[in-house]
Amino acid sequence: MKINERRVMTSDAATSFELGSTKATPESAAFLAAVSPESRGAPESGIAELFNYGRGRQGLIPLWVGEGDLAAPSFVAEAAARSLSRGETFYSFQGGVPELREAICRYMSRHYGAPYEATNGPFTADRFSVTTGGIHALQIAVRLTCGQGDEVIVPTPAWPNFQGVVAIAGAVPVEVPMQLEGAGTADAAWTLDIARIEAAITPRTRALIINSPTNPTGWSASVDELRALRDLARHRGLWIIADEIYGRIVYDGARAPSFHDVIEADDRVIFIHTLSKNWAMTGLRLGWIEAPPALGPTIANLIQYSTSGVAVPLQRGAAAALEYGEPFIARQLERFRRSRDILCQGLAATGKVHFARPTAAFYVFAAFAGRPDTRALAFTLVEEANVGVAPGSAFGQGGQTYVRLCFARDPNQVADATQRLVRWVETALT
Which residues contact 65 (CB under 8 A, 6 or more apart)? Predict the structure, then answer.
């Protein structure tokens, strides 16, 4: 099959193509017309489209999905296995087993500075509820803060699931593009314009989704920027949904600035966290939502009517990760740093790939000179360089001319991918 023919099929329905389904028929159209507009309007993932297209290709180096190449550490698997051997296969607490919630509380206290013993401080265990990954926590946060027709502001480029979750909830995602300043220079940096966010607020706005450090750009908000966002939310009566899942994956300091550094107890901030990135647990689907304790019963109800809770053996593994996982995080960070440097140095040396060197997370968001159609570029790189990347068009406004490269892999493999990309650039971008 020629590449153009295959692109047409994946464009129509990436998932159906993967499963071998036929094209839409009048009968299938009738079924689609009968379901809710919110579910029917769920956007297809541009990342999954490329993943489905290229997976199984011999020798391809996959830099498209936001996960690394290490399995979860053995002590996580062993804790889960011990739980299974004890027969912990029954229903459990909707918000998570007490031992895991306490472990989350201790972890947050260690890294975000509040005393665990405080009975009325920000890090008491009743602030935390265990979820089926970060996406479940995000779904709950959106359900808590907005409803049909409400608006949620999302700075972009952004993880596509932000817009998707808001839309499925019946609300309206409002994209506010960030800007890349100094493109093509060593000082290039993404910037967030608070004034543009304020200008996007309408009477229907209910929340801001702030992802820092961010996927896909590697940008991290400063304390001053977080304070300005806090002040804006206070002034306009808005919720902040703070996705800080990459807060420990930073290359200068112990962690990234957090809304925890600037908020008071009465600020309307809901935090999203996951075990996926720090402890290589993407497929185990474990995260948590942090919210004012008064929201605990409501969150428990939302968990009850969505998943009814997380499997106890997985929660035992999560508790082990939080208690014993610091050496694993340090090991990952060292690999990420080496891989980042290899990829950035190689791409920058071509003079034809522009990006801001990431200060956090594990992505390079890059523009290839003369190739603004990055969906087409991503397919081409699969075919001609045997490297999988995610098209920037999947990340909303401001990202259309970029591709995302995830460097959370063995530095030697990233070096191989970099050489392939450099060879392609030198040949194709004349």
Answer: 47, 51, 390, 406
SS3 state of residue 179: strand
| Beta-ladder partners of 83 | none
As a whole number of angstroms, the distance between CA 91 and CA 168 comes to: 28
* Count of CB atoms situated within 10 Å of the CB of 75: 16
Length of the chain: 430
Which domains does the chain possess? 3-71+328-428 (3.90.1150.10), 74-326 (3.40.640.10)
Question: Which residue shows structure tokens 């839309």?
Answer: 167
Query: Token pair for residue 188?
Result: 């290039």
Nearby residues of 76 by Cβ (< 8 Å), 6 or more positions away: 279, 281, 284, 317, 318, 320, 321, 325
Burial of 414 (0-12, 13-18, 19+ CB in 10 A): buried
Sign of the CA dihedral running 274, 280, 281, 282: positive
d(CA 7, CA 282): 28
Q: What is the pLDDT of residues 370-417, one digit of tens each?
A: 999 999 999 999 999 999 999 999 999 999 999 999 999 999 999 999
Question: Which residues lie closer than 8 Å to 83 by C-beta, 6 or more apart?
Answer: 312, 313, 315, 316, 317
Least confident of 42-51, 296-305, 313-322: 42-51
Is the model's pLDDT at 21 over the cut of 50?
no
